[in-house]
Each structure stands twice: as structure tokens, then as C-alpha cells.
Specification:
With about 150 residues, this protein is an alpha+beta fold. It is about 30% helix and about 30% strand. It has four helices and nine strands. Strands 4-9-8-6 form a four-stranded mixed sheet. The protein is globular, with a radius of gyration of 18 Å. The N and C termini lie far apart (about 50 Å).
């Protein structure tokens, strides 16, 4: 099945790409979650809009990505959340929480979809997350989760 990606999907492509995937993958995963739309002749106009929007948001060059990486790695990110007595959180820390904490700490504005958390953060303490700035540049960032 031919689809148009509306968001970046790792291993598949970026927003605006027209890709061919298995029917079940598109019908059961990509389309319901809003990661893609079905390809049609009229949908080709949407591709240009998606690409223009992506071009505005994305970091254009590797040099610019390395500059943002330097800014990110220089920021000390601390996130205050509610936790129990044993240090377990009520819920978990999301990518959106981390992106807003980076902005609040004086760092650059980061899209929450670019933040990659290895395993869910459900305890207090120091955790490592990565931010994919460009296809070739990944910034590793330490996040300190403290009780509120």
C-alpha cells in the first residue's frame, strides 16, 4: 500500500515521503496514529505542504545541528515530579515533559518527537536521554528527576 508520511517514522522515512508498506502496517498502525495518510492523486498536493512545514521546523545542516547539540549538552535539565516515599513516580516522565524542561532550563526549543527515551523514566534520580537533531547528529543529555 502506498502512503504519505505525515511524521518522521524511524526506519521508514520522514514527513512528506511517499513510501510503500504492507497493508496491515499502514491500516492498523500508521494511519490510525496519524503518522501517515493514504496516497491518492489529490494527496500529492498535501506532500508539498508537509515538506514545506518540515523544512521550517527541521535543522537544515549538520553544522547547525552540531551547534544546537553544543547548546543542549551545556544545559542542566532538572525535572520536578510527584513521587512516592520509595522514589517511584506517580506515572512516568514523557518526551513532552523533557522538551518543556529543556526550554525552561534555557536550552533551545526541541520538538518532543525528537526526544528519545530508552526505557520509561519511573524513578527519581539521574537519567540519560538522547535528542535526534539531524540524521547524523544525536545529542546525549542528562536529566535529573527530583521530587516536587
Amino acid at each position: 500500500m502506498k502512503i504519505i508520511l505525515t511524521h518522521e517514522v524511524s526506519g521508514l522515512g520522514t514527513a512528506g515521503d511517499v513510501v510503500d508498506v504492507r497493508d496491515g502496517y499502514a491500516r492498523n498502525y500508521l494511519v490510525p496514529r496519524g503518522f501517515a495518510i493514504r496516497w491518492t492523486k489529490g494527496g500529492e498536493k498535501d506532500v508539498e505542504q508537509i515538506r514545506r512545514g518540515r523544512k521550517i521546523r527541521e535543522i537544515a545542516s549538520v553544522e547547525q545541528a552540531n551547534e544546537v547539540k553544543g547548546q543542549l549538552e551545556g544545559v542542566k535539565v532538572q525535572l520536578a515530579v510527584r513521587a512516592g516515599d520509595a522514589g517511584r513516580l506517580f506515572g512516568s516522565v514523557t518526551q513532552a515533559d523533557i522538551a518543556s524542561a529543556i526550554k525552561a532550563a534555557g536550552g533551545p526549543d526541541v520538538d518532543k518527537r525528537r526526544v528519545e527515551v530508552g526505557s520509561p523514566i519511573k524513578t527519581l534520580g539521574a537519567h540519560q536521554v538522547s535528542v535526534r537533531l539531524h540524521a547524523e547528529v544525536v545529542a546525549n543529555l542528562g536529566v535529573e528527576v527530583v521530587a516536587a
